[in-house]
Each structure stands twice: as structure tokens, then as C-alpha cells.
Specification:
By secondary structure, this protein is an alpha/beta fold. Helices cover 41% and strands 18% of the residues. The chain contains nine helices and twelve strands. It has helices at 15-26, 40-51, 95-111, 125-136, 149-163, 196-202, 211-229, 234-248, 293-312, and strands at 7-11, 32-36, 62-65, 76-79, 117-120, 143-145, 170-171, 190-191, 194-195, 253-262, 268-279, 282-286. It has a six-stranded parallel beta sheet with strand order 3-2-1-4-5-6, sandwiched between helices. Strands 7-8-9 form a three-stranded antiparallel beta sheet. Strands 10-11-12 form a three-stranded antiparallel beta sheet. The longest helix is centred in the last third of the chain and has 20 residues, at 293-312. The structure holds nicotinamide-adenine-dinucleotide. Nicotinamide-adenine-dinucleotide (NAD) binds at residues 11-17, 37-39, 42, 80-85, 94, 98, 101, 104-105, 121-123, 125, 146, 150, 178, 231-232, 236. Nicotinamide-adenine-dinucleotide is lined by residues 11-17, 37-39, 42, 80-85, 94, 98, 101, 104-105, 121-123, 125, 146, 150, 178, 231-232, 236. Keywords: Cytoplasm, NAD, Oxidoreductase.
């Protein structure tokens, strides 16, 4: 009898990669976490430190340092290698550098015989996920960008804070670019089943709330964290762990991630954040929500931003 062991490879042992490893290990989401980084000392240091968690975890998780050739038996490869934007840059400004880095990663991973799922975290994530899809030749359902999954967690947090409810009782998400142009289809945001637009209407206390300001806050907060601590890591790490869990446990959980649109929302050949059903096969289906005209216009604008940047670089000629 063979027992299948779940293995997740994390490429990039920086703040995002090592925090993701920590989140996977402490939640016991998989049997093995392998870390790869061009900086071998950094990878070794993180692995050694993480190995020492095991005694106090609720299960034994193997943590290893590896190479691209060891990715063949992985269920998931998470790409976090990249350069976080500096204080005066947007995520889109890091495109060329990130594109060059992922190009050196995807080919050797595929040469290892890897047939699993890529979860792309490196920014600008929508465009980089599209490149990983193109470079890998894997089916579209197996290449997933973290997209607006973390932004949506932030959105729920801010709404929960405003209404004094648990963020997990908020249903809703932002869509489009994981970046400045993302939008929220407010007509689909509910709290305990009640539409947020009705909550604001029914309660004098909230009559002056401007929902657009909440989206602006979601967009801005990453940079506010960046300014004071250099990068963001715990939110994205826990988000990636959640995506990984949905895949490995075949959860059919709905999470807004970056995926290839092929006619959905009238868009083609572009990766962007939309709600999807995630299970063992990766992206099972896209939830095509019906937006108001104004929401739909904002969504289209955001998709245009991604496409314009995507068109600027030919990954194959880098
Ligand atoms: P970091 O500088 O701390 O770490 C990056 C790591 O990548 C380094 O250890 C570096 O050695 C490694 N690396 C570079 N080139 C490599 C290569 N060719 N092969 C293997 N490893 C390589 O950066 P970070 O803070 O961990 O951020 C990493 C990426 O994640 C950035 O692109 C950042 O913008 C992105 N990010 C995305 C989100 C999201 O929501 N999608 C959130 C936060 C950060």
C-alpha cells in the first residue's frame, strides 16, 4: 500500500516565503514543506529554524531545503521569489525584475516532472501568474495567482471593524488587479446575509459611510505597512496557506484568486482576481457575479490596467 504524502515547495525564502512556510507548518496543512532560494544560506537558515518548531506542533511536518530538481513530486509550488516594491514604487514597477526571476524558475521546475499547481505570489501577481501559465504550459486551472484574496481579507477586516462584527461573518471580496485599480462589487457584500448597502441605509450611525473609502483603505494599507516594516508578510502568508488548504483538502471553497479569463465577464487572455471554486483540481469554476453597470465599468477598467502592463513585456524575449 502506498500512502500519498502532500508536499508543498516554496520558492523564495524571503519574508513572504518563510512566513508562508511557518503558516503551513503551524497549521499542519501538509506533510512536507521544501524551501528553494538562490541564496542557499538563507534557505538553509530558514529550514533549520523551522525544523525546530516540530516538537510543539500538533503534528510532525518535514521541512527540507531543496532544489528545482526536487519539485517533481510536489503537489504545489508557491512562487514568492521577487523584489518587493520600494517606498516610491507601485507593484507594477517591479514587473520586469519579477518577470526575469520567474523565467529562471518555471523552466527548471517543469523539467523536474512537476505536474501540480503553481500558486504565484510575486508581484505584480496578476501579470506574473499569466507568465507562469504561459511558460509552464500547465492547464489554466493549475496556475493560481494569490490575486485579491488577501485584499478581500483586508476588506472583511475593515467592514468587521466598522460594524463591530467578526470579519468572518462578512461575505464579499475585491476583484480585478491586486493593486491600485482593484474594485469591490458592493451589491454583493453581505453581513450575516444582509446587504451592506441596506445596513448603511437602515442605521443612522452609518449614514455618512463612504464605501469607496473602504476600498481605498484596502489598496493603501499594504503600502502603509511597507513604509513602517519594509514588507507585508503575515496576511499574505496566511492567505497562501488558506489557498493551499482549499486545494489539498479538496474543499470547493470560494476564494477570489487570479485566474485566466476566457470569456468570463467578457474578458479573454488575462489573469485577474475573481471569485473561484478551489479544490484538488485547482480552479474548478469561476463565479460570474452579476454586477451593477457602475461596478462592471470599474472592473473592466482594472482589467485594462493589467492588460496594458502585460502587453509591455514579452516574457519570451527577456
Ligand atoms: P524578500 O526580498 O524578503 O524575498 C525574496 C526572496 O526571493 C529572497 O530570499 C531572494 O533570495 C529570493 N530570490 C530572488 N531571486 C530568486 C530566484 N531566481 N530563485 C529563487 N529565489 C530567488 O521579498 P518578500 O518580501 O518575501 O516579497 C517577495 C515577493 O512577494 C515580492 O514580489 C512581493 O512584491 C510579493 N508580495 C506579494 C503579495 C501578494 O499579495 N501577492 C504580498 C506581499 C508580497
Amino acid at each position: 500500500m502506498t500512502v500519498n504524502r502532500s508536499k508543498v515547495v516554496i520558492i523564495g525564502a524571503g519574508l513572504v516565503g518563510s512566513s508562508t512556510a511557518f503558516s503551513l507548518i503551524t497549521q499542519g496543512i501538509c506533510d512536507e514543506v521544501m524551501i528553494v532560494d538562490i541564496n542557499k544560506d538563507k534557505a538553509r537558515g530558514e529550514v533549520t529554524d523551522l525544523c525546530h518548531c516540530v516538537e510543539y506542533l500538533n503534528r510532525n511536518v518535514k521541512v527540507t531545503e531543496g532544489d528545482y530538481k526536487d519539485c517533481g513530486d510536489a503537489d504545489i509550488v508557491v512562487i514568492t521569489a521577487g523584489a518587493p516594491p520600494k517606498a516610491n514604487q507601485t507593484r507594477l514597477d517591479t514587473l520586469e525584475q519579477s518577470a526575469k526571476i520567474v523565467k529562471t524558475i518555471v523552466e527548471p521546475v517543469m523539467n523536474s516532472g512537476f505536474e501540480g499547481h503553481f500558486i504565484v505570489v510575486s508581484n505584480p501577481v496578476d501579470i506574473i501568474a499569466f507568465y507562469v501559465y504561459k511558460l509552464s504550459g500547465l492547464p489554466k486551472n493549475q496556475v493560481i495567482g494569490s490575486g485579491t484574496a488577501m485584499d478581500s481579507a483586508r476588506l472583511k477586516f475593515f467592514i468587521g471593524e466598522m460594524l463591530h462584527v467578526d470579519p468572518r461573518s462578512v461575505q464579499g471580496y475585491t476583484m480585478g488587479e491586486h493593486g491600485d485599480s482593484q474594485m469591490c462589487p458592493w451589491s454583493h457584500v453581505t453581513v450575516g446575509g444582509k446587504r451592506i448597502v441596506d445596513i448603511l441605509k437602515d442605521n443612522d450611525e452609518y449614514k455618512n459611510v463612504d464605501l469607496n473609502e473602504i476600498v481605498e483603505k484596502v489598496t493603501r494599507v499594504g503600502f502603509e505597512i511597507l513604509e513602517v516594516k519594509g514588507t507585508t508578510c503575515y496576511g499574505i502568508a496566511t492567505t497562501v496557506a488558506g489557498i493551499t488548504k482549499a486545494i489539498l483538502n479538496d474543499e470547493n471553497k470560494i476564494i477570489p484568486v487570479s485566474t485566466l479569463l476566457e470569456g468570463e465577464f467578457g474578458e479573454y487572455e488575462v489573469f485577474c482576481g475573481v471569485p473561484v471554486i478551489l479544490n484538488r483540481g485547482g480552479v474548478k469554476d469561476i463565479v460570474e457575479v452579476h454586477m451593477t453597470d457602475e461596478e462592471f465599468m470599474k472592473f473592466k477598467k482594472s482589467v485594462d490596467v493589467i492588460r496594458n502592463y502585460s502587453d509591455r513585456i514579452d516574457i519570451f524575449s527577456l
